């Protein structure tokens, strides 16, 4: 209406008659302007109503939980999530046992206590793993990690057999050979440059090489393994807790999906080749072989019709777990040993006691059994800096978490791992790295296994716990006897970068040198 008033006040009758506008009747002009203003007001009214509705829904879902009173329209806390930090999450956890945020109208409930974390992990009827919002797009929605009930049990029935001591005995040799090969490469590079290097990407490259050979063995060509290695960082970047939700060209999620397609092509080929090899009567050389051999064993009573695609999806999910979580754990393992030389001395003493002068002798499970301090160090390093600090779940139905709060259906509910691992009632001086807290089987730490949530809990607990611990132990054991390393401290050494997992923000900068045999 303001536009119409201005128009009628500024045009005198003679000027209208003398101008081309005289061909348009004034009532018609007035009607069109009024109609235009009406659409404008209608649009503004609809937009305002939607914003009010958004705020009302958010406040209704939030109820009495700590969190912002209002949410930023549409995007919510998206801007904050672009640069996540452990300190920000610590503040969120400290705000209450349960707290709420909203991002792109995804309502999120954060659970910070061990009690609530355990309840979420162990309530598959109400909540199932969502990992991150983009995970189903990248890993694919029918990946076994998202399945529940009988179909999930059928997968676990055979996959559990891939992590028995017999199967681990196959993998240990591969892990040992590959980490030695990469350490030789690291030392050659260090000798050329005589300078420090961030180990974040060298560790990731070593872990991917290890994982692909453990999982796929000779059934995947070298150039394919390298292609997966080169592309996988795109997948990691897209598995941040919050990302732009649409997979349109140019976005992280879109690039990750393209990288996954490439990886899946080769993993399906590996599954096919493994089936052919096992049918020919060859001995198992990798995890896929162990899987196919298990399904053909006389006592096996589970599914035997896993397709190449299904097997590839499982291997891909294992890659996700091993590549990001184990890389994080191993990088912090190096950093913790460098920053606590008294522990590095003890690791080395144990290695020389078990190995003697035979440092080139291949590692075995029996040898690892004789290295209790190494195992407690790995366990404590993971406790202090757990690779995964939280695991998002999606509510399938209203989930009554406490007496006075029910998580709405469709919401994300996130059991936080970090607070349980830093509970001073269970781990005195929780920020202190103290492997000896695990030495006494009846000690405080060992008496509270429910607090050690590094690998989750419940029906979706990480299936490869022993594999992960073994890989970290082998890598650190070999590093201890093959290399010396100094940690170059920077202003970002103690800061964390949160991607799919956590890493030292400076990439953990080390100066490496070969170690003379004792």
From TrEMBL:
<dbReference type="GO" id="GO:0016125">
    <property type="term" value="P:sterol metabolic process"/>
</dbReference>
<dbReference type="InterPro" id="IPR017972">
    <property type="entry name" value="Cyt_P450_CS"/>
</dbReference>
<dbReference type="Pfam" id="PF00067">
    <property type="entry name" value="p450"/>
</dbReference>
<keyword id="KW-0560">Oxidoreductase</keyword>
<dbReference type="InterPro" id="IPR036396">
    <property type="entry name" value="Cyt_P450_sf"/>
</dbReference>
<keyword id="KW-0503">Monooxygenase</keyword>
<feature type="binding site" description="axial binding residue">
    <location>
        <position position="462"/>
    </location>
    <ligand>
        <name>heme</name>
    </ligand>
</feature>
<dbReference type="GO" id="GO:0020037">
    <property type="term" value="F:heme binding"/>
</dbReference>
<keyword id="KW-0408">Iron</keyword>
<feature type="transmembrane region" description="Helical">
    <location>
        <begin position="39"/>
        <end position="58"/>
    </location>
</feature>
<comment type="similarity">
    <text>Belongs to the cytochrome P450 family.</text>
</comment>
<keyword id="KW-0479">Metal-binding</keyword>
<dbReference type="InterPro" id="IPR002401">
    <property type="entry name" value="Cyt_P450_E_grp-I"/>
</dbReference>
<keyword id="KW-0812">Transmembrane</keyword>
<dbReference type="GO" id="GO:0004497">
    <property type="term" value="F:monooxygenase activity"/>
</dbReference>
<dbReference type="GO" id="GO:0016705">
    <property type="term" value="F:oxidoreductase activity, acting on paired donors, with incorporation or reduction of molecular oxygen"/>
</dbReference>
<keyword id="KW-1133">Transmembrane helix</keyword>
<dbReference type="GO" id="GO:0005506">
    <property type="term" value="F:iron ion binding"/>
</dbReference>
<dbReference type="InterPro" id="IPR001128">
    <property type="entry name" value="Cyt_P450"/>
</dbReference>
<protein>
    <submittedName>
        <fullName>Cytochrome P450 sterol C22-desaturase</fullName>
    </submittedName>
</protein>
<keyword id="KW-0472">Membrane</keyword>
<keyword id="KW-0349">Heme</keyword>
<feature type="transmembrane region" description="Helical">
    <location>
        <begin position="93"/>
        <end position="113"/>
    </location>
</feature>
């Amino acid at each position: 209406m303001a536009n119409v008033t201005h128009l009628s006040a500024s045009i005198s009758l003679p000027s209208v008659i003398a101008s081309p506008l005289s061909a348009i009747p004034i009532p018609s002009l007035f009607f069109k302007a009024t109609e235009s203003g009406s659409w404008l007001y209608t649009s503004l009214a609809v937009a305002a109503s939607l914003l009010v509705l958004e705020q009302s829904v958010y406040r209704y879902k939030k109820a009495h939980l700590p969190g912002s009173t209002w949410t930023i329209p549409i995007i919510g806390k998206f801007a904050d999530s672009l640069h996540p930090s452990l300190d920000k999450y610590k503040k969120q956890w400290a705000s209450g046992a349960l707290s709420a945020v909203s991002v792109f109208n995804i309502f999120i409930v954060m659970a910070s206590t061990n009690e609530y974390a355990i309840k979420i992990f162990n309530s598959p009827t109400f909540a199932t793993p969502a990992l991150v919002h983009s995970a189903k797009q990248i890993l694919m929605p029918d990946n076994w990690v998202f399945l529940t009930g009988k179909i999930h049990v059928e997968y676990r029935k055979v996959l559990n057999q891939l992590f028995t001591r017999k199967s681990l005995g196959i993998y240990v040799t591969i892990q040992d050979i590959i980490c030695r090969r990469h350490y030789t490469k690291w030392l050659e590079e260090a000798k050329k440059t005589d300078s420090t290097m961030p180990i974040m990407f060298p560790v990731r490259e070593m872990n991917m090489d290890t994982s692909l050979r453990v999982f796929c063995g000779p059934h995947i060509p070298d150039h394919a393994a390298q292609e997966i290695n080169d592309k996988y960082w795109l997948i990691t970047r897209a598995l941040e807790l919050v990302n732009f939700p649409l997979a349109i060209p140019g976005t992280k999620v879109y690039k990750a999906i393209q990288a996954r397609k490439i990886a899946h092509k080769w993993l399906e080929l590996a599954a096919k080749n493994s089936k052919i090899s096992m049918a020919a009567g060859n001995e198992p050389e990798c995890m896929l072989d162990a899987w196919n051999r298990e399904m053909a064993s006389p006592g096996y009573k589970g599914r035997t019709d896993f397709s190449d695609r299904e097997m590839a999806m499982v291997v891909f999910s294992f890659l996700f777990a091993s590549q990001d979580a184990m890389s994080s754990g191993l990088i912090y393992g190096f950093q913790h040993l460098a920053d606590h030389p008294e522990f590095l001395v003890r690791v080395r003493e144990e290695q020389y006691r078990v190995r003697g002068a035979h440092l080139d002798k291949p590692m075995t499970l029996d040898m690892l059994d004789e290295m209790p301090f190494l195992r407690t160090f790995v366990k404590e390093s993971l406790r202090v800096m757990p690779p995964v600090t939280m695991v998002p779940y999606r509510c399938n139905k209203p989930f009554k978490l406490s007496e006075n709060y029910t998580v709405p259906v469709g919401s994300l509910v996130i059991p936080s791992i970090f607070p349980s691992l830093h509970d001073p009632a269970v781990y005195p001086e929780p920020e202190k790295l103290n492997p000896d807290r695990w030495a006494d089987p009846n000690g405080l730490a060992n008496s509270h296994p429910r607090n050690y949530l590094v690998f989750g809990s419940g029906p979706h607990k990480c299936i490869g716990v022993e594999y992960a611990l073994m890989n970290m132990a082998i890598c650190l054991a070999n590093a201890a006897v093959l290399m010396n390393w100094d940690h170059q401290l920077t202003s970002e050494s103690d800061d964390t970068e949160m991607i799919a997992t956590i890493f030292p923000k400076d990439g953990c900068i080390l100066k490496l040198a070969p170690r003379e045999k004792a």
